[in-house]
């Protein structure tokens, strides 16, 4: 169906713009009239440009959080669904989100449910988001579930932001250090090597090794770069296969420090997601199925499928989780208490908060350890290079002195 970009005046006299799907310009004009829009300009959007726009520009996560919270406020204030979507599309500063919301509003005005309209935009709204909205529509508590969804998205975004911020400095140091060493090996060492060759003096073994390695690096730079890119591509393609993905996920979990942090991130994400889904009125089995999508690890996905089968047969949730061996005792004990007291949603939220705090502490500890280790490693390498260069120079100087 063609997509048209329009500029119109709404019933409040404000100029608005957006996009609309219609069979023809006439049908687009009729749609806008039904929405009390007075058209001023209309033009078809080329499909190629639209695909490129969607491919290279994603929706800002922070903007989605703000929009979801505003959506909840408008619904709770008594605004009709279509009017709320119009206000949101006009309010948001994210051009793509505005376009998506306009399309969602058009679908709703045609009789589609809000969840059905959102489902047409999988790149903008996750399966979790859509199912929570669907539950809110079914129960008549759309404003409440949207507010809970906004809180969930905000906490997930805050966790990612804290991890990213903690890792920026070590990553920056790694690239700067690697750049300095690469410059020395490919530019400085070859020039010094020429001086040593002209002196025709026997060089120490450590200096010969350094010069040979620098020479190899300088003369095979393009081949080494292509080999590096090729290995990365092969590894990437392998991780996209079922076997490769499972092997990679198992390897990540077995890493000494990073594996522990990855496990805590998975548990935090899963418990917060499950708590949000249950609190929104979604049945446990459906919540577990939706929760698989946020795990991001084949080991935990396979485990959760087995847990779901056990729950379907009538067992409690805590029992299969405990027997799986991949979920920590603290989590399973707290879930047991939640099942016994009937406060599962609150208990899952507490578990997520506990692990969020542990993640923040672990990442801070890791970065505080990485910084001196990286400085020491770079210092050792540079010290080796300096020693290998100065040793023949001292030898040459002593020979001249005699």
N-to-C series of helices and strands: EEHEHHHHHHHHHHHHHHHH
Number of strands: 3
- Whole-number total of structural domains: 2
Give the CA-CA distance, first to last residue: 90 Å
Total of helices = 17
The major beta sheet can be summarized as: 3 strands, antiparallel
How would you describe the overall organization of this protein?
This protein has 402 residues and is mainly α. It has 2 domains: 3-125, Receptor-associated Protein, CATH 1.20.81; 153-402, Type II secretion system (T2SS), domain F (Receptor-associated Protein), CATH 1.20.81. Helices cover 78% and strands 5% of the residues. The protein is built from 17 helices and 3 strands. A 3-stranded antiparallel sheet has the order 2-1-3.
Protein topology:
Blueprint: E1 3-9, E2 15-21, H1 25-34, E3 38-45, H2 47-56, H3 61-76, H4 81-91, H5 95-109, H6 114-119, H7 127-139, H8 142-199, H9 205-219, H10 221-239, H11 242-254, H12 258-279, H13 284-295, H14 298-312, H15 318-324, H16 329-341, H17 344-401
Antiparallel strand pairs: 1-2, 1-3
Key words describing this protein structure:
402 residues; mainly alpha; Receptor-associated Protein; 2 domains; 17 helices
Short account of what is shown:
The protein has 402 residues and is mainly alpha-helical.
């Amino acid at each position: 169906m063609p997509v048209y970009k329009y500029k119109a005046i709404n019933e409040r006299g404000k100029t608005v713009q957006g996009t609309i799907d219609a069979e023809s310009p006439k049908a687009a004009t009729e749609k806008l009239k039904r929405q009390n829009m007075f058209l001023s300009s209309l033009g078809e959007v080329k499909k190629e440009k639209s695909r490129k726009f969607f491919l290279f520009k994603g929706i800002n996560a922070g903007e989605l959080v703000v929009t979801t919270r505003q959506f909840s406020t408008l619904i709770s204030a008594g605004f009709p669904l279509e009017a709320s979507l119009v206000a949101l599309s006009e309010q948001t500063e994210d051009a793509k989100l505005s376009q998506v919301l306009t399309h969602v509003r058009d679908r709703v005005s045609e009789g589609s449910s809000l969840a059905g309209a959102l489902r047409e935009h999988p790149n903008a709204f996750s399966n979790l988001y859509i199912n929570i909205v669907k539950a809110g529509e079914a129960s008549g508590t759309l404003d409440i579930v949207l507010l809970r969804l906004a809180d969930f998205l905000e906490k997930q975004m805050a966790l990612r932001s804290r991890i990213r911020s903690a890792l920026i400095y070590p990553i920056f140091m790694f690239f700067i250090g690697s750049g300095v060493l690469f410059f020395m090996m490919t530019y400085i060492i070859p020039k010094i090597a020429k001086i040593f060759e002209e002196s025709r003096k026997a060089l120490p073994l450590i200096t010969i090794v350094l010069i040979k390695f620098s020479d190899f690096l300088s003369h095979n730079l393009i081949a080494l770069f292509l080999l590096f890119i090729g290995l990365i591509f092969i590894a990437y393609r392998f991780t996209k296969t079922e076997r490769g993905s499972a092997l990679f996920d198992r390897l990540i979990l077995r890493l000494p420090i990073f594996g522990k942090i990855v496990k805590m991130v998975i548990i935090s994400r899963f418990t917060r997601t499950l708590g949000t889904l249950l609190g929104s009125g979604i049945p446990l089995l459906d919540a577990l199925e939706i929760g698989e999508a946020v795990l991001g690890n084949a080991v935990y996905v396979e485990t959760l499928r087995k847990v779901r089968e056990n729950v379907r047969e009538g067992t409690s949730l805590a029992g299969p989780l405990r027997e799986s061996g991949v979920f920590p005792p603290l989590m399973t004990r707290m879930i047991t208490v939640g099942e016994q007291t009937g406060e599962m949603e609150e208990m899952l939220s507490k578990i997520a908060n506990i692990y969020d705090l542990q993640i923040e502490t672990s990442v801070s500890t890791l970065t505080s350890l990485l910084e001196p280790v990286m400085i020491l490693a770079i210092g050792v390498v540079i010290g080796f290079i300096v020693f290998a260069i100065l040793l023949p120079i001292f030898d040459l100087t002593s020979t001249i002195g005699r």
